[in-house]
Amino acid sequence: MKKFFSVFSIIVLCGYCYIPIAAQRVGQFGKSQPVKAEAAKSKGIRVQVFTDEQNTVIQWKDDSSDPAVGFDVYRLSASGFERITTASILGSMPGSRAEVEPVIERSFSIRGGAPGEVFVVEGFDQTGTRRQSEPSASQFTGDLASISGSDSLTDQSQTGQKVRVLERSALDLPRELKNETMKSVQMPDSVNQLAVAAQGGAKIGIKVNGFYRVTKAELAAAQFDVNTDPDKWQLYANGVEQSILVEPNGDYIEFFGKVVETNESDVNSYFLIAAASAGKRIATAVSRPGGVSISSTNYRAVYDKKQRTNYLWDILNGDAENYWGDLISTNPLNFSFSLTGIDTTASDASVQIKFQGFSLASHSMSISINGNNIGTQTGSGQTPMTGTFIVPVSALIEGTNTLQMTSAVAGDYTLFDRITVSYSRKFVADQNRLDFYTNNYKSTLLTGFTTADIRAFDTTQDGAPVQITDFPIVPNGPTFDAKLAATRSRAMYAVASNGIRQAAFVRQNKPSELAANYRAGKLLIITYGDFYQQAITWAQYRSTRDFPVAVVDVDDIFDEFNYGKSSANSITAFLAFAKANWQVAPDYVLILGDASYDPKGYTGQGYSNLVPAKMVDTLYEETGSDEALADIDHDGLSDMAIGRVPAKVPQDVTNALAKVMAFETPLMQDINRGVVFAYDLPVGWDFEASSHALGDQLPPSVSKAFVGRGDVNSAATLLGEINQGRYIVNYSGHGSTGVWASTGFFGVNSVPQLTNSNSLSLFTMLTCLNGYFINPTADSLAEKLFNAQNGGSVMSWASNGKTTPDIQMIMATRFYQQLSLGNIKRMGDLVRDAKAQVPGGSDVRYSWVLIGDPMLKVTQ
User: Fewer Cβ atoms within 10 Å of its own Cβ: the N or the C terminal residue of the chain?
Assistant: First the structure.
């Protein structure tokens, strides 16, 4: 379940947002640094500290007129205040668009602690000027989880730490060999992939390159028929058969696996089927010693490590990932990376470092590795930067190296992205694995294996490795060496038995035929696999003889339309096929499953991107769009009415269907239950006038209540009106992910006070971000209302981004006009009709989301 973990951001009045994973982590104390003497104390930063003596959570708000762009946390020790944030926590992005200044809320967690310990939070602005909070002493609590939003701070931290940095190794191949390998690259076969998906079998997922073994027990657990003829087992990747090894009795299969990471997935899928004919097998070749006495001493290796601690939606960079690393400022940022097998006799190494500008001005950073200055990186504004430095090998260390980056002047802020090192590496195994290449007609001595069962494979030909045999293996002290005879240059992989990798998962691949013309479904229910039975129940509720409903496991879409890899585009491709080719084409799409801007789990919150939304750049930010999923002709408007139940567990789907069924009765569908119009203070727009204008679209007989935020007892009045069970609740005004203008008016904390479970309402929210369902760490207000079992909404129509009141009013006016006329019966059709009135562009159309069933019948 989404929770407010140890950091969250409420940006009031459509302000800036980013998610700092660094602030979520449970950190050990960093290197001590005294608070700068010139920092001026400010009441703008207000701090609260809580501890259960196992963990401590420091929380703060910054409502200054000029909110900080970053924060550091300090703890009082015997020697004074010491900095405990190893990297600064991001605040308000310089130059971010906001109607008025935002309120920034952050928190930071550490292990241990005791009541009475004193902390200070220091913020810094765009100029580098620093200001401090008043000192705050920690208070004991027996329920730290409710304060932090985490059931287990330690467990969450450990999970997240594994994914915040990603390391990859590759080969910097010589030109001739690189050309040969590129010529052999297998082209995906989409037609064959459909046949593989239709047959069923086992689906094998891997996350790193290497030599893999999948056992009979793993295959049987995935319901693969292990009693079939092993000689006819075939393995496919991207619709193309791969050469494999199969143990004669079928006790295991082995294969060389490769991963191509995308923005949405770090897993590559392989499909094993029991075919009617013999499968491809890894061939063998004998290593034949010749008369060549020259040996290779090294090969060129590439090491890459990227950091993913901060998500920023304000940076509009197209399809590129919106995650970066820690903040670089005048406080030096240290980043460790590990190199093995360095050939110290080589001369130079190439170091490439990538950054993302954060502050608006020019950038200048000094860069050092292990205390050796390697150069300066410059740039300007909020743009990406890349620096390439040639460094002597003597500057590198076997094992852990430290990259240090420091801004030259205060107010210069940059985000670290990744480091890539190309260096000469000896032929020494790392954890009994060695990815390398041989040099033309030179023998190769492989060292560093801890066991003698070394195998070597020529991996030059994509998907068709060749096992090299008959090469000598000799002991060398506690390790073993293997000598390969001289040949022309080859890409190679060597591995001992305890270096063979295990798959990330082995699952059943149920047969599917989505790309078949005979299929039919006026309503398509696309569901996460764990919710399949609940989806069937929903389909039974909607289905009639003249209205077929099709239930589709989203994994089947990935399998047939993207070779098993998760992606939003594959959902669009499937919808386009179904719309054009199915015997009965879909008009409605219901998604069952949550989505996330963190599909690869950088936040450490577990896998929450159950059914992906399409990430799109709008005028103000990147956001997730269901509308874009169903926009087949790319005109900015979905070609089917689409809605989402952002379920995390099966019970969420059951609860949502119960709400729908309870609402679809004549009593609940009666607009004469009344309408509540809540509205904000007239800051930048007359929201009261807008509310009355919308009320005028409804029949005079309909009861209308108007509640302004500035009214006396407005919060209590609004709650009372909602709890009366009104037909519609509308809000016009400023807002953010979890609030209508102010937590003192209405927001996620108000939802537990609702009691309208027997008279559910339609919620239309003419504000910003109330529908931001893609946050992996916190539910939006629209989700909270929809998921509430004590009442709330049967449907929430809200924005997943930032939009302006004028455009909102165009849609809302049409929506209330059509609702009053009663000619359009279902919610999804009302939404599509309203969005169609928006002139030009796709921003508002894409960023407004229907949380609920698009087939919800809102009137008789």
Answer: C
Question: 3-state SS of 14-66?
Answer: CCCCEEEHHHHCEECCCCCCCCCCCCEECCCEEEEEEECCCEEEEEEEECCCC
Lookup result for tokens 């059914």: 611
| SS3 category, 181 | helix
Phi and psi (nearest 5°) for 591? Answer: -100, 130
Pairing outcome for strands 761-766 and 728-732? parallel
Please check whether residue 1 lies inside any domain of the structure: no
Residue 106: in which H helix or E strand, if any? strand 104-111
- What percentage of the chain has pLDDT greater than the value 90? 84
List all residues 6 or more positions away from 270 whose beta carbon is below 8 Å from its beta carbon.
Answer: 203, 204, 205, 206, 235, 236, 237, 242, 255, 257, 564
Q: Pull the structure tokens for residue 526.
A: 């696309």
d(CA 277, CA 54): 60
CA dist., res. 642 & res. 629, Å (int): 9
Question: One-letter amino acid identity for 789?
Answer: Q
User: What pLDDT, on a 0 to 100 scale, did the predictor assign at position 156?
Assistant: 34
Give the model confidence (pLDDT) of 476-504 as tens digits: 999 999 999 999 999 999 999 999 999 99
Q: Which domain holds residue 480?
A: 286-296+428-499
Asked if residue 11 is part of any domain, the answer here is no
CB-count exposure of residue 272 (10 Å: 0-12, 13-18, 19+): buried
Name the DSSP letter for residue 486.
P
Q: Kindly state the tokens that stand for 498.
A: 């305890």
Evaluate whether residue 367 is within a structural domain. yes
By the 8 A CB rule, do 495 and 433 touch? yes
Q: How many domains, the chain? A: 6
Residue 156 within any structural domain of the chain: no
Q: What are phi and psi of 843, to 5 degrees?
A: -55, -55
Closest CA to 596 of 149, 265, 229, 292: 265
Three-class secondary structure of residue 217 per DSSP: helix
The pLDDT tens digits for 366-398 are 999 999 999 999 999 999 999 999 999 999 999
> Any alpha helices (H) in 130-224, and if so which ranges?
144-148, 153-164, 175-183, 190-199, 216-221
Residue 860 CA to residue 858 CA, distance in Å, equals 7
Largest CA distance in the chain: 101
Strands 614-617, 139-140: pairing is unpaired
Positions of the chain with pLDDT under 50: 1-13, 15-42, 97-102, 150-162
| Pair (290, 308) in one structural domain | no
